[in-house]
């Protein structure tokens, strides 16, 4: 697959799982790559190394997306090394499994800070350049939990529902400026988030299995490559829910 040659993509939370798959799919499609991570520097660098093996320029940069100064420094370093960010994939997120009774105020706040505020901070930092160039692709990684009960907790539901609202709000205001904003909402994907009970969860999926990170990445490339699609949420859920 090709189509993003000459573009620079920033994928947050890209050291493993869905983020890693998205990053490598973008690199395979021709994009130079910024691999964001928070703690796992070695695995993030391994993703960058794989991208370089595909002939791309790639850089691994650590930053907590919930911190505005850290996001600003990351984007500045990325653009100094690779050029302006054309494609932003807000994938970084946390998923602390909690019952309503066990959920603390701090855990609720941290979940929203990473999953929702983090996306806002990254968008705000790259958006001025996208608007000046009249070209940009923003893809927010939501979840089936944005519109359903989910298995993580109410804090996760709230963060992902907010992310879809953020997606539609930016899309409405940027339509006509060459910048599209969409979301991809995976459910029950085979990642570390589903470390327990995978067989039981797979039985809930009409297709009879968990999804693969690479299948989420395919959906990201779909919306990033479509200049006429904006403000949409694309579910990747094996037929669990229809829209």
From TrEMBL:
GO terms for biological process: monocarboxylic acid metabolic process. Pfam families: adh_short. Residues 7-187 form the Ketoreductase domain. One of its GO terms (molecular function) is oxidoreductase activity. It comes from the Bacteria. Keywords: Oxidoreductase. PANTHER family: 3-OXOACYL-(ACYL-CARRIER-PROTEIN) REDUCTASE (PTHR42879), 3-OXOACYL-[ACYL-CARRIER-PROTEIN] REDUCTASE FABG (PTHR42879:SF2). Belongs to the short-chain dehydrogenases/reductases (SDR) family. This is 3-oxoacyl-ACP reductase.
């Amino acid at each position: 697959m090709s189509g993003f040659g000459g573009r620079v993509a920033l994928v947050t939370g890209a050291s493993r799982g869905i983020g890693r798959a998205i990053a490598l799919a973008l690199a395979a499609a021709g994009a130079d790559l910024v691999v964001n991570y928070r703690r796992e520097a070695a695995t993030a660098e391994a993703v960058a190394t794989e991208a370089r093996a595909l002939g791309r320029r790639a850089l691994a940069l650590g930053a907590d997306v919930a911190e505005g100064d850290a996001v600003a420094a990351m984007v500045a370093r990325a653009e100094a090394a690779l050029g302006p960010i054309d494609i932003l994939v807000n994938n970084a997120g946390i998923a602390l499994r909690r019952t309503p009774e066990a959920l603390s105020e701090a855990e609720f706040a941290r979940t929203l800070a990473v999953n929702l505020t983090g996306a806002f901070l990254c968008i705000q930092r790259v958006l001025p350049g996208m608007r000046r160039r009249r070209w940009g692709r923003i893809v927010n990684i939501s979840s089936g939990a944005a519109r359903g009960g989910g298995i993580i907790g109410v804090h996760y539901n709230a963060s992902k529902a907010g992310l879809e609202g953020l997606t539609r709000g930016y899309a409405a205001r940027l339509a006509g400026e060459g910048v599209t904003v969409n979301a991809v909402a995976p459910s029950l994907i085979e990642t570390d988030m589903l470390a327990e009970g995978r067989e039981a969860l797979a039985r809930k999926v009409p297709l009879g299995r968990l999804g693969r990170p690479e299948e989420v990445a395919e959906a990201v490339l779909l919306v990033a490559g479509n200049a006429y699609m904006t403000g949409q949420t694309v579910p990747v859920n094996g037929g669990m829910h229809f829209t």
